[in-house]
Amino acid sequence: MPTLDEYAKPSVAVDLAIMTVIDGDLCVLLVNRPEGDIVGWAMPGGFVHIDEALEDSVQRVLSEKVGTKPIHFEQLATYGALGRDPRSRVISIVYLALCPSEVLGGANLAKVIIDWEGEVGGRVAAQMNGARLPLAFDHAAILGDVVKRLRGKLDYSPIGFALLPKRFTLREVQEIHEAILGKPLKKPPFRRKLLDRGMIVPTGEFETGGAYRPAELYEVKSKE
Amino acid sequence: MPTLDEYAKPSVAVDLAIMTVIDGDLCVLLVNRPEGDIVGWAMPGGFVHIDEALEDSVQRVLSEKVGTKPIHFEQLATYGALGRDPRSRVISIVYLALCPSEVLGGANLAKVIIDWEGEVGGRVAAQMNGARLPLAFDHAAILGDVVKRLRGKLDYSPIGFALLPKRFTLREVQEIHEAILGKPLKKPPFRRKLLDRGMIVPTGEFETGGAYRPAELYEVKSKE
DNA sequence: ATAATAGTGTCTATTAGACAATATCCT
DNA sequence: AGGATATTGTCTAATAGACACTATTAT
Q1: The pTM of the whole model exceeds 0.90
Q2: Structural domains in chain B?
């Protein structure tokens, strides 16, 4: 109930869409809601404290609930529909965070199943080990927006490299792009476009351990 | 102060960047803050009520403070730095709204002066009748983001048409684009690109009243 | 030698931009 | 008729995509 001198305020939360690519599949880190509460899987999140900047809330949720630092994060959008959390009015500021899969060891990574392909305003499903996971709140729709943002920014921004280790082969970059776009790409044009962008430079070193011809390792060009 | 069973909550507001183009200048609707309060000019805004969806807050602010309905509005971003409102912690969800200048009669429209040209993260200045207006809060930086969003979406989305009346000439479209991009465009390539997009259709009617040859009127193609 | 992948060369289709020429309408 | 703008035509540069080919390495 509102006090005398102020209106009741909504709660404000940050929710994190922590994305990675594993074996050619776009994946998101989800947490299982405790029983008796909201059922289903949800993006990790937390309330924004009164003395805490939004990015600090993001960092706190990362260290409290995830235990890792993403390479890149950016604000996606804010969701404030009335019934989105049935317990109370919560406005969620959603951040998109990107990590290479290596640094997310042991976390609950759910494969993101895009089931709209071409339509607009799409939702998304999630599965883990082949089983469908129920998504809590409006997180299926939010993840649809996440995928749209990723696809939109993929080839004119360096976000794809945030999903890769410091040094990577061109094939690995292509696998990331194919996973996000959900379609295969031709190798030669992809290589050119990438190299013509001028965002990456060859290191002169080569991958090891693989069968057959090793590919050169590249890294993101440091801004001079 | 927080009550026993909950933390203190930030306030949540919506702020509106209501943009238009007048005589080739990108303009924004601002309100003058009352004296004794925050000094300077600010975007119109209001607090989000506990039982009100974000878009409903936007509509309420529009009817209370502006008295007009924009052709198009979309969420831009959410700003929550700690000191942005010196009176209390306020998190602002900023919406970008677009209107043709004809429907904003008599409002306080300030010309947006872009003073960064090419750099990243830019702020913006405002002037009215040639005099510089002081911008309150972090609204100079927010308006920088507004301009960036406008420029980025201009030529692959129909937002430019939201600044025009229902029927318009190709020259008028070009003037809108030049105002937003801040640079002149060549007429023939601009015409083709626009027509090849397939988003507008000729009406067969022509403008009247102007000196010299009248141009054909176009309108946005209705989706079938 | 062979298999499998890395990397290159060439061609074509599409698109964006520059520039010149023509068409049309008002005064 | 003349002036200003609308509209069209042609050319060029840059880009994206398809496809064939060569190069390199582990087995």
Answers
A1: yes
A2: 11-153 (3.90.79.10), 164-220 (1.10.10.10)
